[in-house]
Amino acid sequence: MESKKLAAEKATESIADGMIIGLGTGSTAYYAIQKIGQRVQEGLAIQAIATSKQSEELAVSLGIPLIAASDIDYIDITIDGADEVDSRWNLIKGGGGALLREKIVASASKQLIIVVDESKVVAELGRFPLPVEIITFGFEITMRKLEKLGCQPILRQAGVKPYVTDNGNYIADCHIGSIPNAEELHSALQLIPGVVDNGLFIGMASQVIVGYMNGTAKQLEK
Ligand SMILES: O=C[C@H](O)[C@H](O)[C@H](O)COP(=O)(O)O
User: Fold this and answer.
1) How many domains does one find in the chain?
2) Boundaries of domain holding 181
3) Where are the transmembrane segments (predicted)?
């Protein structure tokens, strides 16, 4: 989609020689990785770390040099997509199942640039079901605890089997409707045994670039 591409390509303009770059996951991050690949082929000297096996394969196919997490202290810029963005730049992520690696990479990044099309910008988070990564052991117990928090958790499926993340876990997609207090919900979710992480990214984005149907891309004002 053109608006996703516009936002993603604009974000890559901040990338310069010598940087370590975090590669996001999903259909918008895809365009950023493609553009980075093109610039690498033209001589840009960077190293990258991927947030999913899918993005890693794409990076390898484009000749983007990868670096292991064990070999870095920080990441200069990460460019990633989101499922929802509010006016405070809080996010829901994980629609593609990559939230855990994305959050680890984001937390080590000096700058997290979020790239979305205009359909992702919302007044309040929660319309998009919140992905929660859970351990497979006792997942039914974990799901019941999620339910008690007021979510309607649905175990994500891949065909007839539960979807399994790159980390070997399940995803519960929590239908909430609206999240008036994201900080509170984030903390409550993280207290449930069996929850590894959740798709709320609070206060992590340094910039949000939105692509519009009219062919422009600009930073979302806070
Ligand atoms: O797990 C996936 C990621 O959080 C994605 O960045 C998010 O789902 C947005 O993906 P897309 O750009 O394909 O809408």
Assistant:
1) 2
2) 130-197
3) none
Q: How many helices (H) and strands (E) does the chain have?
A: 6, 15
Q: Which of 79, 84, 93, 201 to mutate to test the pocket of ligand 1 (most atoms within 8 A of CB)?
A: 93
208, two tokens: 């949000």
Q: Is residue 179 within 8 Å of 188, Cβ to Cβ?
A: no
Based on the fold, state whether residues 117 and 135 are members of the same structural domain: no
7 in Cβ contact with 82 (< 8 Å) = no
Report ipTM (2 d.p.).
0.98
* Residue 97 forms part of a structural domain: yes
Whether the pTM exceeds 0.80: the reply is yes
User: Is 222 within the bounds of a domain?
Assistant: no
CB atoms within 10 A of CB 2: 13
Q: Which residues have CB under 6 Å of ligand 1?
A: 24-29, 80-83, 93-99, 102
Q: What is the mean pLDDT of residues 41-65?
A: 98
Which pLDDT score is estimated for 159? 98
25, 120, 198, best to mutate for ligand 1 pocket (most atoms within 8 Å of CB): 25
Q: Distance between CA atoms of 18 and 148, rounded to whole angstroms? A: 48
**Beta-bridge mates of residue 67:** none
Q: How far apart are CA 118 and CA 43, in angstroms?
A: 32
* Number of the ligand 1 atom closest to the C-alpha atom of 120: 14
